[in-house]
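Could you help me review a protein record that somebody else here produced? What it holds is a sequence and that sequence's fold in token form. I need someone to confirm that the token line plausibly describes how this chain folds. Take the sequence as given and treat only the tokens as open to question. This is what I was given:
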Amino acid sequence: MNIQIFGRSSSFDTKKAQRYFKERRISFQYIDLNSKGMSKGEFTSVLAAVGDIDKLLDPKAKGEAATLFRYLGSAEEKQEKLLENPQIITAPVVRNGKHATVGYCPDVWKNWE
């Protein structure tokens, strides 16, 4: 298993995801969305696994980028906006190879073990 957790240090769900994998002694790589973000390849892989780009937008996100995202028409424009502004992505995004989840999803992670 190659687990990556994209999250924020201030996110309660990110902390719960880290604790979930630590308790099961599953190693993971933590990437802070606010400081590092996602590479285009990582983002494409997550998007393919999740299926809908709108699932990646944090419903609690505020600011100009979040407002603009809601009015963008094409998937390409939305993808560019999320890559430029990782602070509006829902945390955590947990990735295991070609599988990925958005938010706290222990029921899905059990199937990865």
User: Anything to note?
Assistant: Residues 38 and 104 are 18 Å apart (CA to CA). Residues 3-110 form a domain with the Glutaredoxin fold (CATH 3.40.30.10). DSSP finds five helices and four strands in the chain.
